[in-house]
Amino acid sequence: MRILLDIAGLSVAYGHVTALQDLSLAVPEGGIVALLGANGAGKTSLLKAVAGVVRPRSGRVVFDGRDITAAGVPARLADGLVLVPEGRRILVSLTIEENLLVGAHLRRDPDGVRRDIAAIYERFPNLGRRRHMAASCLSGGEQQMLAVGRAMIARPRLLMLDEPSLGLSPLFIEHLFALIRALNRDGITILLVEQNTAQALAVAHTAAVLELGRIVMAGDPAQLAGDPRLAEAYLGRAAGEPAALH
User: Fold this and answer.
1) In this protein, which residues make up the domain named ABC transporter (predicted)?
2) How, if at all, do strands 206-211 and 32-36 pair?
3) Is there a contact between 61 and 38 (Cβ–Cβ < 8 Å)?
4) What is the pLDDT of residue 178?
């Protein structure tokens, strides 16, 4: 199995506060890897370090066989490393189409951008019908779809999603995880940070649990779902109770 992203011995600190401690993680090409853990475990710090938003204190990040630890955010975007941040970060004063065009700021193929935007509207008809309206008109779930669409315009090879289901209705959560599966079937590798542990384990090919900046559990999602420690700490059910994977 080919490794697309290889994180080795990564440590991240904010002043005297350590967010990640000597963390190593491999993301196979074409897979979905879920990162689980409580608030403050270091999940978002890991995504930011991979995206280049924060610089690690030590360790290295290798993408597609090339060390990118010292590379800036634009270079990583150009390589196909794209982050959909927690909270979506939609520019609500811009139109839906203008938000999508933000994702194309490094591209130099206007015809390709137009085709990709048309494909986003085909996938998300609600966005297409309101393309010239301000993004503030969208519901939370629609804004999340716009955030994913904006990321797709950047043509990701690795798509990183930070708490994509946060604040969404149960119906939109189902749509979101169906979308994650569809994007992965289209060949996009996905690194998913998600508090909805049951849904994350259901969609992932592999999973890892972070605690205080370290990976404390990792492996097959079905096996992790049956682990009493994960069940009690993150799934909110008694040990021995079956997981609702699908």
Assistant:
1) 5-237
2) parallel
3) no
4) 96
Residues (pLDDT < 50) of the chain are 236-246
CATH class belonging to 3-89+156-235: alpha beta
Q: What is the pLDDT of residue 38?
A: 87
- What residue spans define the domains of the chain? 3-89+156-235
- List the structure tokens of 30: 């074409």
> What pLDDT, on the 0 to 100 scale, is given for residue 194?
92
Backbone conformation region of residue 71, classed left if phi is above 0, alpha if psi is from -120 to 50, else beta: beta
Q: How far is 88 from 233, CA to CA, in rounded Å?
A: 27
154 phi and psi, to 5 degrees? -80, 0
Neighbours of 7 (CB within 10 A): 22
Q: What is this structure's pTM?
A: 0.91
d(CA 242, CA 239): 8
